[in-house]
Amino acid sequence: MTDKRLRVFSGVQPTGNIHIGNYLGALRQFVALQEENDCIYCIVDLHAITMPKDPAELHAHILDVAALYMAVGLDPKKSILFVQSEVPGHAELSWILTCCSYTGELSRMTQFKDKSRGNESAPTGLFVYPALMAADILLYDADVVPVGQDQRQHIELTRDLAIRVNNRFGEDTFVVPEGRFLKEGARVMALDDPAAKMSKSAENEMSRISLLDDDAKIKKAIMRATTDSDGEIRYDIQKKPGVSNLLAIYGAFAGISAEDVAARYQGQGYGTLKKDLVEITVDALRPIKERFAEIRPSNELARILKDGAARADAIAGPVLARVKERFGLGV
Ligand code: TYM
User: Fold this and answer.
1) Is the CB of 208 under 6 A from ligand 1?
2) For 71-93, how does the pLDDT look when each residue is reduced to its tens digit (9 = 90+)?
3) How far is the CA of 11 from the centre of ligand 1 (A)?
4) What are the tens digits of pLDDT across the range 153-168?
5) I need a surface site. Which of 165, 250, 288, 307 has the fewest CB within 10 A?
6) Cα–Cα distance, 223 to 225 (Å, whole number)
7) pTM (2 decimals)?
8) How large is the C-alpha radius of gyration of the chain?
9) In terms of C-beta density within 10 A (0-12 exposed, 13-18 middle, 19 or more buried), how is residue 290 classed?
């Protein structure tokens, strides 16, 4: 990272089951970046309704993510924390960017293809989802977007849209953002199936470790994790995806590379590696759960989010005005 303070933007969907993939790929980057940069972290509730949601559950999940943001170490005095639908500019810019996008590029998005697979017709919101995500980022002139690998294609599309608009309306219409991906933790795989990414919505609870899981569940999920039968501890994503996933999770929590973890455990059994990974994971999640239990019931949460929305809106307003003026919109 350079000396200059950068504008950082990222978001998490309020869908429940926030897991160690979200933490290791994204949330821990959010925390690390807040000390030296101007960070804006959003709870993207408009994205969450691209699939049908129960209103009471959605509302609870919004507050859960807000409390988790703070439990992992985000400080509302340092970072802006807010809910997407509280700043109308997101929806407005999303429409403008939708009008700059093509059905061809949107239909190539793997997230859309995965979620709509097998259905003749898919929800339109799911299709235009990446234009809303581009709007989130471009609305704040963000330089850097810390995310997991699964968002790489959406970040590329955001860059393409920004460059396309800049070519037509002037180079300084949008800041062209960069994605920021970590080496360890950017793609945490499902514990029961290392060919699939760890996901909030997978049916099998044992496929993931949620940040609020109790110790017994953490132990069960890790001890049952799919490995292989050759018994050798080695980091090789192609040939040994299950073991490599455990090594990467361990490395991400311990702050070392997956290869170094493999070297440390060379010649030992999978059982030892798994037992130690249980301990590391339990220790890492304990303080998060404790802080969550304190923060979540507090009435302060809503005030913090309202205050964050006002600060976000003050940044978004001039950007949106600039874009509308370039497009010739309004009076
Ligand atoms: P979401 O809510 O699915 O995930 C939140 C963050 O967690 C990362 N992530 C993972 N990282 C490593 N391993 C995994 N298995 C894993 N699963 C998820 C995601 O990459 C993400 O960084 N579209 C976004 C939310 C969004 C957004 C934005 C992000 C909306 N607007 C603007 C950045 C900027 C999403 O659905 O993330």
Assistant:
1) no
2) 999 999 999 999 999 999 999 99
3) 7
4) 999 999 999 999 999 9
5) 307
6) 6
7) 0.96
8) 20
9) exposed
